[in-house]
Amino acid sequence: MPNVRAIVVVAFVAALCAAAGAATLAILYSPDSVVDLVPTQNDLEPTIAADPLQPGTLVAANESGSLDGVGLYVSNDGGYNWRNAALPLGGVTALGDVQVAAGTSALYFAFLGSQTGYKRVGIQFFTSNDHGNTFDHTAFVHSLAHGYDHEQLSVDTADNRYRGRIMISALYSVKVKPQVNACGFLWSDDGRVFHGPVRVVTGWCFNSKPVALADGRILFPYFYIQKFGDNVAKVKVAISRDGGRTFGASHVIGTYTSLTAAQFTARLRAGESDFDGDPVPQYAAHGNNVYCIWSDLATGTSRLLFSRSPDGGVHWTTPRAIVPPGDSADAQYQASINVNTKGTIAVAFLRANAISKTVTEMFTASTDGGRTFMTPVAVESTPARLDAMQSSGYGAGAEHVQGQIFVGFSSPGSRFTSGGDYVDMAVDANDAFHPIWVDARSGTDQVWTATARVGALPSLPLTLAAANVSDNVDLQFGSGSWDATTHTYAVPVRLHNASTHTLYPPFTVTVVNVHDPWAPGSEKYDAAPVFENADNGKPGVGAAYVYGDAQLGNLGMLAPGAETAPLIWKVQLSHASVQSSMVTRIAGYR
Known about the structure:
mainly beta, 2 domains, Neuraminidase, globular
């Protein structure tokens, strides 16, 4: 093994030397991690934000189930591990359309919901002043005249006169029969009192997150179709120069083509789901430069289109494709976009393949203001089955409409073909990006995230020595599942570098004892575990699990504080009521 490692190191260093004088920037990404904690429940429309005051703290949320419910999660280690966040829901019914955002000194969470005493759907708003440990219910934004839908949340964190302002765009009806919709803007400076909505556009419209610029202007992005059923929309932005109290004339970015209702239904019935049925453009800004990304079906296959504005949303470049397809079966959709303090633009998206029936989360970036983009890389360790969600179960929901009750039956495979109307991406205080997405690698739609950044290629030491790194590494056990029939416990296990040294793979976790060595005679009453899936096939002492490059993203090393992707250990235990023990030793390189 040491000789093999030495060969790898020499080859890697040789490659670096050969690339001297060439571009040394690369997309670096960590192992992906599952966010939601119920692997049997379909979760949709994920959103994520990074705490600017506490590096490593992330908050994420999603819509739970086929129709109703929400999930809220917090990570304090940069996204490796997640826990359920405390959320007071007394008297509140959660319906979906979740949003999280980071302010200048607080974290915010919003979703559509109802409340005791109100029949119309409003926006439930929560605030955390302790880095996501607890959230307080600080507002119920509602109207007696209409209900809200598709609220989109952002915060002005630029150094301008509106710094800290909470901004929400939302869809609502101004007339029911015939239906007339509008998109409007709401704002708050304290998370308790909200103003608006200020109507921005009336008609068949759909909104994206508001965008704050460095000079205090606010962009209200939306798309607009002439009449219900049209599949070609205008992508537009309206601009406010007074903090959102009024908006001026809209500016056209481009158009996008989606599927007609008949095409949508026909493709689903044919078992196809390699497309975005409801492509909502996403935006990001750096200073007064604004960037927009969306998926377009004009060619019959989803392709990403990108446009940028150098003057705060007034003029836009001609939309263009930024990711060449790998082959004619490639589809690109469900994109998210963000930009860090250095001006690096990141775009994450799902790449589906109709032939292999798989879908993978991809990541690309631009360091020149969107003029060129790097070759996309897969930040998802395991491609998901594209058709897995087609077999997901149904849910039902009801709504009062004009003296009647409308009932809808929906499944992720019928309503949310690509994980919902939107996904998200956060950027943290260290300028790293955290895309969040939905895939069905487990058989249900779960929420995943990873960490990606643009930086210099990592360099490995010229020499590495094999070492016992047991004192440097912790075993991190995730939420496992128990099969009472086979007495098998399947548990995800990560390696966490708890030292100040950078460690190098492969890491081999070897079982050296299957009893408690510190309890004399324990072998007489302690049931020895049996390992069903050790990499070397051994069931007891000597069983080994090997963590290699595949568990490290593309970093090739385990930095202090970092973790590997998990391996699933399948351990047969004699009975749920009998304790089992073991001792392991971990070998690696440093």
